[in-house]
Amino acid sequence: MSRRGRPRHPDVLTPAEWRVVEAVRHGMSNRQIAGRRGISVDAVKFHVANALLKLGLERRAELRTWRGVPADSALRTGGTRQGVEAMSVQLGSIGQISRPVSDITTAVEWYRDVLGLPHLYTFGDLAFFDCDGTRLFLNAAEDPDRVGEPSILYFRVDDIQTAYDDLTARGVRFENAPHLIHKHESGVEEWMAFFPDPDGHLLAVMSQVPPS
Predict the structure, then answer these.
(1) Is residue 48 a contact partner of residue 30, using CB atoms and an 8 Å limit?
(2) What is the separation of C-alpha 38 from the centre of its chain, rounded to a whole number of angstroms?
(3) 177 and 67 Cβ atoms separated by less than 8 Å
(4) Which of 14, 37, 42, 79 is most buried when burial is the number of CB atoms within 10 A of its CB?
């Protein structure tokens, strides 16, 4: 007889659990995740609890440094140099700079219509523009006092997993493991990991991983 209920998912986490875990690894609170995903806080807590149980972790904070990658991710299926001797990481050009804004709609109109920057896309309260190859990332600040905080510098790297390991060996203390930020319609994945400088200001390594 066939078993009742939903069939077992082929990955360690379900797609819904992966989305919540990636948001946790990005540093978002349960309330922020709920608002971004359009679900209840209780639903977020449910997914977090399930993920912790499946992964054998005890605390939500442990998800921040867990190195898991989805089974169908381009980072696992061909985006990294598997089996190739890792070379010392070389930070590339600055791929992205972020700026907090008080109102995303007003900011998008100003950067697009007044400054004339090419608008790439808007996702909720996040907006992206092209500055001659460097991406400008605008995000709506929950606290107006955060609008004056320093911009985050995002360095491009070819292999984010190798970069994470190499920089960690050099003494860099990452706030989170490499995690999926966004998957474009083309299949290209955006992966990032954040770390502070000596003054506590955030920097990041970023990698765009094409589908295999």
Answers:
(1) yes
(2) 18
(3) yes
(4) 79
Six-digit token string for 53: 């149980």
Please spell the DSSP secondary structure of the chain, one letter per residue.
-PPPSSPPPSSSS-HHHHHHHHHHHTT--HHHHHHHHT--HHHHHHHHHHHHHHHT--SGGGGGG-----TT-HHHHTSS-TTSPPPPP---SEEEEEEEES-HHHHHHIIIIIS-PPEEEEETTEEEEEETTEEEEEEE-SSGGGGGSPPEEEEE-S-HHHHHHHHHHTT---SS--EEEEE-TTS-EEEEEEEE-TTS-EEEEEEEE---
Given the structure tokens 């939500």, which residue do they identify?
60
What's the angle, vertex CA 174, arms to CA 168 and CA 177, rounded to 5?
95
R_g of the chain, CA atoms, integer Å: 18
**Which structure tokens are listed for 162?**
């190798």
What parts of the chain have a pLDDT lower than 70? 1-9, 78-88, 144-148
pLDDT digits (tens, 9 = 90+) for 151-200: 888 999 999 999 999 999 988 999 999 999 999 999 999 999 999 987 78
Which pair of structure tokens corresponds to residue 13? 């986490």
